[in-house]
Amino acid sequence: MIYLDNSATTKMYPEVVETFATVANNFSGNPSSLHRLGEEASILMERSRIQIADLLGMSASEIVFTSGGTEGDNWVIKGTAIEKMPYGKHIITSTIEHPAVYQSMKQLETLGWEVSYVPVDENGIISVKLLEEALREDTVLVSVMAVNNEVGSIQPLKEIGKILENYPSIHFHVDAVQTLGKIPFNLNDYPRVDMAVFSAHKFHGPKGIGFVYIKKGRVLAPLLTGGGQENNLRSGTENLPAIVAMAKALRMSLDKLTDAPIQLEKQHKIIMGFLDNQSTVDVFSSSKGAPHIICFGISGIKGEVVVHALEKKGIYISTTSACSSKKQLNSSTLYAMNIPKRKAESAVRISMDVENTSAEIDQLVDSLQETIVKFKDIR
Known about the structure:
Layout: E1 2-3, H1 14-26, H2 36-56, E2 63-66, H3 69-83, E3 90-94, H4 99-110, E4 114-118, H5 128-134, E5 139-143, H6 157-164, E6 171-175, E7 195-199, E8 210-214, H7 229-232, H8 240-256, H9 260-276, E9 281-283, E10 293-298, H10 303-311, E11 315-316, H11 322-325, H12 332-336, H13 341-344, E12 347-351, H14 358-378
């Protein structure tokens, strides 16, 4: 089996599974309980928080545990809207955000907020100039993803941050789910970013756990209220085994990332070089995008047909976003890039990981060649 759908989810490292099981078996207390078992659980949880913060160069008080990327994006967007409602009801985002962001914006629009959707160019890069022009006195939030999950475009966060230095009251939110363990990403390189969202299952951790970075001094209204966990920011009993396993997965992923950019860029170049030489293939990803994501389509062949054709060869890729593919929803990113509908319907996504070998990539290219020839003969 060759797994190339790592932007949808990654396989947990065996060591991470072992950590999860060990904590689940040996730390049964609720971190909020006053007795010894609760105290032991609380200490272990806070050690994990410190470890994550240290790995990212942040303060432990700036890390809040969530259930993953969707909750994190929803919380930052809606929590900002609630908290800053007296100051304005205008939000800016791009036209290629993840559904967790896009649908949150649409929900807020039904409640009276105004959202400006800044377009992207043919490479899926947001227009910084148009974003600056969209800023208003009543703007309370700018939300732009770091790496697009469908085509791999890397957004100009530093340039956006420089603009927002003149607007210190506006929250700057980044969906950074497609970064950790995939590309070098250090929040200290983006000092204007106020909130960033991460999900463990994208870097070989468990599903259903993640965290949000909230810069010290920034305030979000909680979405989940109740027992007051996470410093009253996110109520609900913490998932201790998943939290500890997530910290382990993050450390391992960042360790493995040391040499990964060179490996991934080499593999990216091999696949892109092959695709660029195919007359019946449309490549939607830019060569300057994130090296782990390649989006393309075989002309006249729907994406799901290609996915199943490669699956028969033991190779697993996807159409576009995992959140949309099973529902057979078309790629909003490709439409935002002005890709014609017929071409967009052909899109598939290869998403690599540091665990993928050169031999696997060679086999992928051979299988793609066979598949392209097969469909060419059918047409």
